[in-house]
Amino acid sequence: MLLPTDHALIKATEAGLPLSPDPYGELARRLGCSRAEVLGRLAGLIETGAIRRIGVIPNHYALGVTANGMSVWDIADEAVAEIGPRIGALAAVSHCYRRPRHLPHWRYNVFAMVHGVSSDEVIGKVAEIARLIGPAARAHEVLFSKRILKKTGLRLAARPAA
Amino acid sequence: MITLTATDRIIINGLQGGFPLSERPYADAADMLGISEGELIERLAALVAAGAVSRFGPLWNSEEMGGAVCLAAMAVPAERFEAVAEQVNRHPEIAHNYERGHELNMWFVISSLDPERITSTAAAIEAETGLKVWLMPKEEEFFVGFRVEV
Lengths: 162, 150
Description:
The complex is a heterodimer. Chain A has 2 domains: 4-48; 67-144, 2-Layer Sandwich (Alpha-Beta Plaits). Chain A is α+β, with helices and mostly antiparallel strands. Helices cover 35% and strands 28% of the residues of chain A. Chain A is built from 5 helices and 5 strands, in the order αααββαββαβ. The interface between A and B is large, with 73 and 76 residues. Strand 5 of chain A pairs antiparallel with strand 3 of chain B, so a sheet runs across the interface.
């Protein structure tokens, strides 16, 4: 769980890390604490998974990686724990989750969002995943988005007053 | 599309995680990438300004921020699709909504700070549209290695 002081840290890094040689020292000055405290807290947040990683967050649309397909997989319940992490670890997969089936209407229990420069590339990557999983995947499909009907940003923290 | 220099590619491909927690992290990361600290800072600023990089910094796990998020899907008859999209989108709890090529042709994300709003929003949409809303909550997340290669 996040501590109250973490919200100040989220807000201070919302636009990114300071692009200066001592970014953690600069954050510490803004937050009124020491660099060691900032480093310790960031290390803790990475360990608990509250921070997924620190680095470049590419704008994949600007970089031409514009196609994505939601691949859905029917994987035997007892095999999911072994296979799920292998799908998630692939470079082309941005999200990978186990979700409930809704039988008989919906048989798929693993969802993996697959990205590429074209829908053909996405289809090729899904075929690679199918080979990787083998017969444990009893069926799969790729659902391409045809149209965005609504998109509002999920905000993590309130923007500072402009 | 943005034209990248060879150094930009090294930075984007090499720094999608693992930025050091140290006193001079840009210098340490630059060493790893085989470039200089000044070059790394300057190119990161340029890549963010050009929009090739959305941000440089921590990627927070939004679920740790509190609140609940749930994927949901509906099978909407083609002749009612636009009207149902409006009915669904009218709810402020709907963050994203996509038309997808499948019998379940409308996929949206319900999010709220109050977890009970997930089921109450789904129930409201069912009452308004007379269509079943299939809730597909995340039961487990698998480690994600997503990297954009440029």
